[in-house]
């Protein structure tokens, strides 16, 4: 782990201290969990943007023959 300093408002610090006391977890653990959730949410949003950009990508049929060829090739591969 890497040590990092952050600045919290008095209200944030008080709420965090209360949560830590109520849950029996450290303030650091709660902060790491919050950061993990933020990262997960950001990655999920990025995935949604990629999928949104891909929507209708082959609406004009361009590339369909390539997909069909790849699918046929994949169907020939025997499962292990």
TrEMBL record:
Signal peptide: none annotated. InterPro entries: Arc_rbn_hlx_hlx (IPR013321), CopG (IPR002145). GO terms for biological process: regulation of DNA-templated transcription. It comes from the Bacteria. It holds the Pfam family RHH_1. Residues 2-41 form the Ribbon-helix-helix protein CopG domain. This is CopG family transcriptional regulator. The lineage of its organism: Bacteria, Pseudomonadati, Pseudomonadota, Betaproteobacteria, Rhodocyclales.
């Amino acid at each position: 782990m890497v040590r990092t300093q952050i600045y919290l408002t008095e209200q944030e610090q008080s709420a965090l201290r209360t949560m830590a006391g109520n849950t029996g977890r450290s303030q650091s653990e709660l902060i790491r969990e919050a950061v993990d959730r933020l990262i997960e949410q950001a990655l999920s949003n990025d995935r949604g943007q990629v999928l949104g950009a891909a929507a209708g990508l082959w609406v004009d049929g361009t590339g369909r023959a390539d997909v069909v060829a790849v699918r046929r090739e994949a169907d020939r591969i025997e499962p292990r």
